[in-house]
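The instructor's notes for this session suggest beginning with a concrete chain rather than abstract definitions. Hand out the sequence below and ask the class to guess, before any prediction is shown, which regions might be ordered.
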Amino acid sequence: PMVNFRANSLAPTTATSPDEFALKFTMGAHCSTYQVAGARITASWTANRTFTLVLYDSDGTTTLQSIVIDTDEAIAGQGTHDFFFDETTLSTLTAGTSYRLAVLAAATSAGTYSTFTVPSAGDMSAISPESMAYSHRTDAGAWTDVTTQAPCLQALVYDMSVSSGGLLRHPGMTGGMAA
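After discussion, reveal the predicted structure:
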């Protein structure tokens, strides 16, 4: 079990290293395909700033979806807010494939973003059954993944299609409406 975790913060700009951070995530086998409609991000927001929310394909460089976010859409100060992509058609993602949901900094910081660190990579399973990690890079270079850290950023999943096999139930379930 996870005993403790440490909160961290970062305030990226185009002049900092890193200038982009992401939630690297892989959905498990409980679904076959899904879409990401946006992100839920926890930060201390600065007014009159922008950042770009980007969903990258598995190669980490191909942009599947992106939108420039004006921080005035969020309430100034600390908070968690949902931001949505504006594409008419969202990209269909495949379970078992890793993607990155990233925040790309503008010239000035849009705010201070929250991350957390756990003692070991296995402790992430106490937070989510999906595979996730903090990922960062500078000037569109190579990504560095930190499996003991994650940003306080969640993918807002939409239109998930269930894997074949029908209803999933615990093998110990009996009676009632269990099949």
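Then share the key points. The chain has a mean pLDDT of 83. The two ends are 32 Å apart (CA to CA).
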